[in-house]
Amino acid sequence: MRDNSSDKRYRLGGTQPKRGVRRTATVAALILAVAAFTTPGTASADDSDFTTFPLAFGSSPATIAKGPDGNLWFTELTGNAIGRISPDGRITEFKAGLSALSGPDRIVAGPDGNLWFTEWFGNRIGRITPDGAVTEFSAGITPGASVFGIGAGADGNLWFTESTTNKVGRITPGGVVTEFDGGPNASAAPTDIVAGADGNMWFTQRFGGIGRITPQGAVTVFTEGITPGAGSVSIASGPDGNLWFTETFAGRIGRISTAGVVDEFTQGLSPASLPVNITNGPDGKLWFTEYTGGRVGTVDTAGRVTEVRSVGETTVPDGIVTGPDGNLWFVQAVASRIGRLHPPTH
């Protein structure tokens, strides 16, 4: 491993979860702690590069994705809705067809022109058309699996993770589910998943390493070079052909090649910032959110980290994506807002 950290204070430990644990205690406690101090609103007048769009308080938006229709689509974990926001900020929410207390979480554009999402509480996979028609799928998913991440594969299917059962699932656009064992660590808690440049799916493990699964279901887990207990929760396929991921508990940004070589980066990250979600930016960099830091940052393909700006210390920014307008769009989980950030030109 090549460790690019200049300060070992960032190296945090971690413990493995008991089976059946839903959200980590860290995240749950954080939301409860800051909720009382946050109120919805819009950016101040001098924030010309940053705009927010409020949702109903308590909606808890979780992630956001670029849709095939030129809009952004997002999930509301406790609002129990799927939302759509246009580049000019017009919001529409869809609840019809969603089971009560389903807990929509991760969302991604599918190969069929629809949006696909996970239901954290409902333990289902959902599909929503650009017109807002929802279909839920549960057949073939292990009960109590805690489906979490979802990504579109090069094989034309959707792939998802099961956090408490340590499995990776595949669902066809027609709704047929196949499950695969997620690796040797039964308590690894797989989280996010994305297609790599090598045609395989790559996934993070909150209490393990980085996993790779072939279209046929063969799994390899890489742990060498990854800080123990790193708490990886998000992964993106970078413009350099590598996979980039967050180490939320360890306070690092990680990079893994398709051959499994890992580098970690901390210089430029504030202590206890909890980097959480990561995505490709419009500028050839990776952009990420900081859960407790209330910031949005970038990392270039050489590993240079920049915390670009604060978006509200107690707003808890989470899912982030580049929109069709070239701006960065992200959710603020506790503030119950959607944020839009125009990337700096310098």
Automatic annotation (TrEMBL):
What SUPFAM superfamilies does its record include?
Calcium-dependent phosphotriesterase
Recite the UniProt keywords alphabetically.
Hydrolase, Signal
Q: Which residues form the signal peptide?
A: 1-45
Domain of life, per lineage: Bacteria
One MF term in GO for this entry?
hydrolase activity
Name of the featured protein: Putative antibiotic hydrolase
